[in-house]
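User: Okay, second chain of the day. Same drill as before: sequence in, structure tokens out.
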Amino acid sequence: MRLASYIVNGNPAFGIVTDMGVITLSDRFAGRALTLKDALAEDEALDEMLKLAEGAEPDRSLDGLRYLPVITNPGKILCVGINYRSHAAEHGHAVAEKPNIFTKFTDTLVEHDGNMVRPSASQQLDFEGELAVVIGKGGRAIKPKDALSHVAGYTCFCDGSVRDFIKVSLITGKNFPATSPLGPWMVTADEIPDPSKLNLTTRLNGVQMQHSGTDMMMHGVPELIAYCSVFTELSPGDVIATGTPEGIGARRNPPVWMKAGDVLEVEISNIGTLRWWTRDMRPQQLKLGWTSSKISMNYRIATAIPLICA
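Assistant: Same drill. Structure tokens below.
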């Protein structure tokens, strides 16, 4: 099952993605779940979604659908630095004994077919295509053998990185607003029983920049979930980005930085392709909210996602 978040008549919605369109479910959760994250927090939510969709016809076409990040308001975005053997090699690093975890803010997220913003403070905006895990069942001190039972699904992610700022501070270089696309949808865990058997490809303007199997991770999904749950309690809707393979722009000769007009895609087998455009930030472009003043203030406060205005 593929689940997406999107805009309907200026309001946030979520539903099931089919080849013929989307079956909106958020109205059927009315009064209970404003976002997909809220729905995942309910017991047996995914089973209920399947039942609600039985016999239902798509109510909207995928053409022209205005996506939101698949999880619009994650409580945590936990990222893993240098988790692929090939990426460690291009940095000259040895295999790490423990994952190197850092965090991203919610306002870094960008929707599928949206705009990644190159900040005016830097020309060194880089890409890192990644597999992201969406937590479905929370927990603390989760054992690796039980970890996959805590997964709601998987999606595509790009850890947008401003390299010159990273040289000074990792947290600043990783947290410029509207630099990290997430989507286009989440594929539920039952359709991906083994996340180590996927292939990830990143393309810049149609040219392949990164390609790897997820079996090249130094720390696999179960180990990452277990490790993160040692120091923080995981909750439904939390996102764990699992790291990127070799091929980032900073390690090329000469370096390749994203610029206005570039199109970047992250494709993962059995999930789909996340696509977006790069544009330069202009003064006073950022403001709270998505694409319509009709979106409720409660939703905008809860998600705190930036809108890039033309």
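The first helix runs from residue 36 to 40.

User: Thanks, on to the next one.
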